[in-house]
Structures are given as structure tokens and as C-alpha cells.
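Protein in question reproduced for absentees:

***
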Amino acid sequence: MNKKLVLFDLDGVLINSKSNMELAWKETSKKFLLGIEFEDYFNKIGRPFEDILNMLNIKENKGDIENFFNKISTNHIDKIDFYKGVIVTLRKIIDKNIKIGIVTSKNTAKTDKILQSINIEFDIVQTPNGKLRGKPAPDHILHAMQVLGVTPKSVLYIGDMEVDYQAAKNANIDYMFAQWGYGSCHDEKIMRLKDISQILDVI
């Protein structure tokens, strides 16, 4: 595929964070009397947290809810693990002189703390901010491409949720679906990866 940049979603692609999110959501729902089951939250992940709250029809205390959720999640960062083969595969991609990056809806503080646990240098890490729209908008992917000076044809995005697929499609770049993740992909034309190491066979 002659790619110059491989971008990854974080949750469900590089890391298994479901137990962390479940603990944080249950504590948050209890504290703010939300009465919303974890699965109702979980099937909307991949989007910015505020967008998820809007989809769940939560209109009050959104800032406090997000801050509390992030506090609990960060306090239990030990419940997050990298999937088998991730670190080795990332290093092999780097050895091919291909840039790597992350486009995630997880906030900056948690993302940085997670990435500090591995000795991998990413060329770019895109997390939510007040300037760029979150997935499924292509803004963060397009920004990463602009910063690193690459064209759409030379970029690949690996994700596991429908919003990842839509973001890649909106950015006009190739997309591959991580089958070990949390979501699904309805486009039968999209390549499905059973193992992260399969990326090495196609880039």
C-alpha cells in the first residue's frame, strides 16, 4: 500500500480499556444519579465525551460529570492493558520508516499517562480540543496529515468503531477494521484485521 503514516484509534485497538471505562461510568452514574447502564454509554464510545452525554440526553452538570469520570478513570489506569502484539508491531512499523500516530477521543491527560508506560515515540497524538471537531468528523486526521506533510493516499487509519470508519471516509483515507475491538464495520469492502501484526503484511 506504500503508506507513509499509520494512524490508530486507542481504545479497542491498541488498548483494552473496557473494564476501566465500566468502573468509571458506574461510579459516575451513581454519583450523579444518571440511571444509565454502562452498555448504553459503551455503545457510543469513540466520540468526544460531551457528544456521548448529549446522545444520552444528559443536559445538566456535563462538565462536572466529565471531570469526575476522568478522575475515576485516571485513578484506575492500572485496569488498562495494551493488546498482545501491539508494542512489537508498532516498533516494526517504525523500523519500516513509516510514521505512526494516534487519533482518539480519550482526553490528553489519560492518553499521555497510558502512552508513558511504553517506550514508543509516536509522531503525532491527536486528542480532543476546543478547536477541532471529534470523530466522525475528519478534523483530527486532516490536522495530523497537515502537520506531518502527507497525502491522503499515503495514510491508513486503524479503528474498531463506526465513528472511526466514518472519520477515515470523511478524510478520504484508507481504513482497516480491528476485529478484536469493541465495535463493528458494516462495509464489506473494508479489510478486517484479526491480529494487529497483519498490518505489517499490507503496508
